[in-house]
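Hello Y.,

Per our agreement to keep a running log of every chain we model this quarter, I'm adding this entry. I've kept the format consistent with earlier entries: sequence first, then predicted structure.
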Amino acid sequence: MGFFDFLKSDKKKAHENAEKAQVQQQADEGAGPSRSAAADAASATRAAAERMAAAAPPRRGPAPATPTPGSAAHKAVPAPPRPAAMPKAAPPNTSPGAAYTPTPHSAAHKAVPAAPVAKPQPTAKNRTYTVKQGDTLAAIAGRELGNEARWRELYAMNRGVIGANPDLVPPGAVLTLPS
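Predicted structure for the entry above:
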């Protein structure tokens, strides 16, 4: 029989002895058959919890979730790296015949004209449609865009011209057609 088996058998014997003593105590008090099964189970559970609490080692308070500045754990955490200092600009090369690049604050830089900015290429002009009496957005979308279901797209592009109600399209309004 191993050491742990020995401990287990001792615990079993102690548990059986405690149960026998409890049954004997209940019999002495006269609570035997009159007590309910639920009450017996509750008292047995309570007694087992008390025995376990008595046998357990004392608990210490909870450990802090984050290390405090004075703790050893805080000192073990490395500090984040500090950013390196900006490198200093090298002094301009003053040897004869060396190329010189003007800095943004130098007079030579201000004397150089800015590079020309390319103008944006003209885009294809958006097509327009002038609303006639009796036109609806669905009819315009079907005729001009090839699909009546695109009336919502037409309305979204021209909400400022049409207004809040897409059913009331003012005659004479110029609508921009989507591509």
